[in-house]
Amino acid sequence: MTEDIDNLQTICHKVINQKDKLHMNHNKLAAEKDQLQASYTSLAKERDQLQTNYDSMKSLRDQLQINYNSLAEEKKQLQISYDNIKTQENLLQTNYSKLTKERDQLQTNYNNMTSQKDQLQIIYNNLAEEKKQLQISYDNMTSQRDQLQINYNNLAEEKKQLQISYGNIKSQINLLQTNYSRLTKERDQLQTNYNNMTSQKDQLQIIYNNLAEEKKQLQSSYKSVRTEKEKLQREKNQLQTSYNNLRYQPDQLQREKNQLQTKYNNLLNQRDQLQREKNKLNEYVQEGWKSFSSSVYYISSERKNYSESRQDCRDRGADLVIINSKEEEDFISSLNKVCNCYAWIGLTEVREGGVWKWVDGTALTTGYWERGEPNNNGPARNEDCDPGSSILDKLKTFDTGGQ
């Protein structure tokens, strides 16, 4: 991306250089105006000398030729600028395509993870809001570009005014030529050698016509070059607009890529965490624990009282089971049936009597005592601690270690 920024800065410098060239052209036109003014003064002083008039017209022809050559050179410079911008556009298009492919790859990963994480929809809405903010920034840049276009139009208007001044000077030259022709006729009437002077006059007239024709041709070429220059300028403006549009797309795609990469990494971390939990559960299962829902259960083969059983559970990093659902109760009952034994559960009666609580301190809210239970007639002869009877039949309530 740093290389792209450097390319953009280079293009900006080129645009500034083109602006400076236009300013130099403006100064050059002003100098041409001064030269034309000097020619006008010279014609006013030398209107009585026909040969001097011929030299002045020849000088004017040379000046037009210089203008033509200058415009041709300017056309060549504009063509070079056009080619440079076209090359930069192709480079930006290549970068855009590359970033688009990367974005598509990340989008594929994103779609695969979407089924595991619905929260990505909220993240997408945040990205849409960021896109809206970027659009506002883009509008601001467009306003700045329009301001630069206004400045360029002002320079073009000044150039147009100079062209009008050039046309006025040309009209004055034509008026002087008319006056010159009138004075020539008066001089011919006073001259004795009328035929010789007439012959010279005809020759000069032919030369003048040739120069006028050359002037028209140069003027036509000047207009053609000017038209082509305006066309190239319009193409340049269009390319500049396309360049500005492409300039911000890579930044936006890069931000989207970074956002998606971050979310992708978060999902990978969550997947790893779930894998670690799964591996831990597998270790418990391999040690003889039984899995149900998201917990594992263990029934010891040793016979112990309530306190010893609970301490054994704690030593294993667990505690006597707390039953939270009918399904869990059925599962623990099935474990008791398999081993054909009683097992302590994490339910005990508070000393005041009559209030049953789980080992985490919560009160028993749902129980399925058998009729006449609890009655202190169980295997422990003391049913302040339940050895597995509180939901279904007196021992249908499982007393197991659970984690």
TrEMBL record:
Keyword Coiled coil: yes
Domain of life: Eukaryota
C-type lectin domain mapped to chain residues: 292-385
Keywords assigned by UniProt, alphabetized: Coiled coil, Lectin
GO terms for MF: carbohydrate binding
Xref: SMART domains: CLECT (SM00034)
Coiled coil: 19-287
Ranges where the record places region Disordered: 370-403
A Pfam family: Lectin_C
Record's protein name: C-type lectin domain family 4 member M-like
Source organism: Chanos chanos
